[in-house]
Design goal:
This protein has one domain (6-224, 279-316): TIM Barrel, CATH 3.20.20. 45% of the residues lie in helices and 11% in strands. Helix 2 (28-36) runs parallel beside helix 4. It has an 8-stranded parallel beta sheet. Helix 9 (180-189) links the parallel strand 7 and strand 8 (193-196). The protein is globular. The protein is of the alpha/beta class. The chain is built from 16 helices and 8 strands. It binds flavin mononucleotide. Flavin mononucleotide binds next to strand 3, helix 10 and helix 15.
Length: 327
């Protein structure tokens, strides 16, 4: 079966499955195998820490696959972000993903350079703004997902279903997706692609410790630490406190403070990019999403993607079991 959507056409991938960005460890070791297996891998610029490291990693990925992959630059989290963006442009990475805060300046520069721009947001309001600013597609992360939390964020089901009705550009669903059923459900809601974070962490190629991957296999979404991390929005009073500080300090100072609230950290949390940064730190900061319920073993990236596609195709076939309909 052909899995063509406007998203596969935009990205040039075989399947509408995109690997999420990971500060700390989202490097070619994971991105290249994802693209090679028919998905769309993403190198997270901040995981390389500086523009020289990013350039080297893009070239490393190119030596590992001839399939297209992208680069993520996360506003407020990525050090030397303008230089990182320029490296991705110079290296002609076909699609640049931005995330976190407003990214229209980056988007404009990416488009002027003749590349595609996809922005990731947590609410429909921000998705509509990205569309107005010229994004070629938007990723919308529902509450079930991990990463930035927005005080107005809603669950994936209602967010994507509404977004698909309201946006003209293709919508890519994220948050709590990690198996064939959640993949098909996203397409049924109107998404034209899925964006998977936590699911890809539990793969053999993901460059983090086996101990953490085993912990993901054992975790359940109803455990308070996992459930509350995902479902409880940031504290409004902390959000207000930082929001009011806008304009009283430079954007470089303010943004990381706002990001730490959106990531539900202490507002004074700060990453020291010059210190010896441990990839595991990203996991401590962000944590897994409710997808842990689907993760029952650590498999290769290829097996992970192939299983989603094979099971989805089975469910869509006449003999398959899409839902639990009784003939
Ligand atoms: C450890 C970790 C680090 C992450 N770092 C980033 C990041 O630097 N930039 C970004 O845009 N998203 C980041 N994310 C969010 C993912 O890219 C993705 O949006 C999210 O995991 C999707 O939800 P899911 O985990 O339910 O699939 C991170 C997620 C995790 C688990």
């Amino acid at each position: 079966m052909k899995w063509r959507t406007r998203v596969t056409e935009l990205l040039g991938s075989r399947y509408p499955i995109i690997q999420g960005a990971f500060g700390g460890f989202g490097v070619s070791a994971l991105a290249a195998p994802v693209s090679e297996a028919g998905g769309f891998g993403i190198i997270t610029a901040s995981a390389l820490r500086n523009p020289e490291g990013l350039r080297e990693d893009i070239r490393r990925a190119r030596s590992m696959t001839d399939q297209p992959f992208g680069v993520n630059i996360s506003v407020g989290l990525c050090p030397r972000i303008d230089e990182m963006r320029e490296v991705a442009i110079e290296e002609r990475v076909p699609v640049i993903f931005t995330a976190a805060y407003r990214a229209d300046d980056h988007g404009q520069r990416i488009k002027e350079a003749g590349l595609k721009w996809v922005h990731k947001v947590a609410t429909i309001k921000h998705a509509l703004a990205a569309e107005r600013h010229g994004a070629d597609a938007v990723v919308i992360v529902g509450l079930e997902g991990t990463g930035f939390k927005n005080i107005s964020q809603l669950p994936t089901l209602v967010t994507i279903t509404n977004a698909a009705r309201m946006l003209k550009v293709p919508v890519i669903a994220a948050g709590g997706i990690g198996d064939a059923r959640s993949f098909l459900a996203s397409l049924a809601m109107g998404a034209e692609g899925v964006y998977i974070g936590t699911g890809f962490i539990a793969t053999k190629e993901c460059p983090i410790s086996d101990r953490y991957k085993e912990a993901l296999v054992k975790s359940q979404p109803w455990e308070p630490a996992v459930r509350d991390r995902a479902l409880a929005p940031p504290r409004p009073e902390e959000y207000e406190r930082i929001a009011q500080g806008k304009g009283t300090m430079s954007m470089d100072e303010w943004l990381p403070r706002m990001e730490s609230v959106l990531l539900k950290q202490s507002p004074d949390f700060k990453i020291d990019w010059d210190a010896d940064y441990d990839p595991g730190e990203a996991l401590r900061i962000t944590g897994p999403s409710l997808t842990v319920g689907f993760i029952d073993r650590v498999v290769s990236v290829k097996e992970f993607i192939d299983t989603i596609i094979r099971e989805a195709e089975q469910m869509l076939s006449r003999e398959g079991h899409l839902g639990k309909l009784v003939a």
